Each structure stands twice: as structure tokens, then as C-alpha cells.
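Session log. Operator J.P. requested a structure for one protein chain; no other inputs attached. Running the standard single-chain path with C-alpha cell output.
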Amino acid sequence: MNNIQIKIRERLSAFADWLEYGLRRIYGKPTIMKQFTIVLSLGTLLSIFSIYTLVRSIYNIGRNDARTEFMEIKHIGNLELQGSSDSINFLKQKTHEYKQSNGQE
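Structure written below.
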């Protein structure tokens, strides 16, 4: 382990000792039932906080999605065609040009 990890472990150990001393001073020597009550209450508080955080984050995601502006869809107007280039007139024109170039008319 490096030096930073050792310092962190020492500080966590010191904090745990301080917390244990404070609890023993307040409650005395905890019985099994007191220990169970403490663990159960801390577990319940952490569970409630976890569920609150989850619900709050889902709510914020939904709220932010509702705020974004969606692309507006507009109706297409009349489409302007370039001349009359439908397939029948085009075919007739090509046939006529072919006949003129061959001198058939």
C-alpha cells in the first residue's frame, strides 16, 4: 500500500473509534437489542435515502426531457414540378427526336 492509503485507513480507524466512544458514552454498553435497533434504524434511513435519490433522479430526467424543444413538423405545401416531365410526354418527345434524327418524318 502506498502512503496515502495508509493515512486514509488511519483516519477512518480514528473516526470509528471516536464514534464508538461517543455512542458508548451516550448509551452505555449496548445490549444485543440496542445494537439490532441501531443497525436496523441506520439501514432503514439509508434505504429511504437511496430510494429518494433514485426517484428524484428519474424525475429530473423526465423534467429535463420535457423542457427540450422538439422539432416542429410542418405540413408540406404544394410541390412545384419543373415543367411537364411526366413519363409519357418524355417518351413521346424522345421518340419524336429519334425519328427526326433518322429522317423518318
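Operator note: The mean pLDDT is 79.
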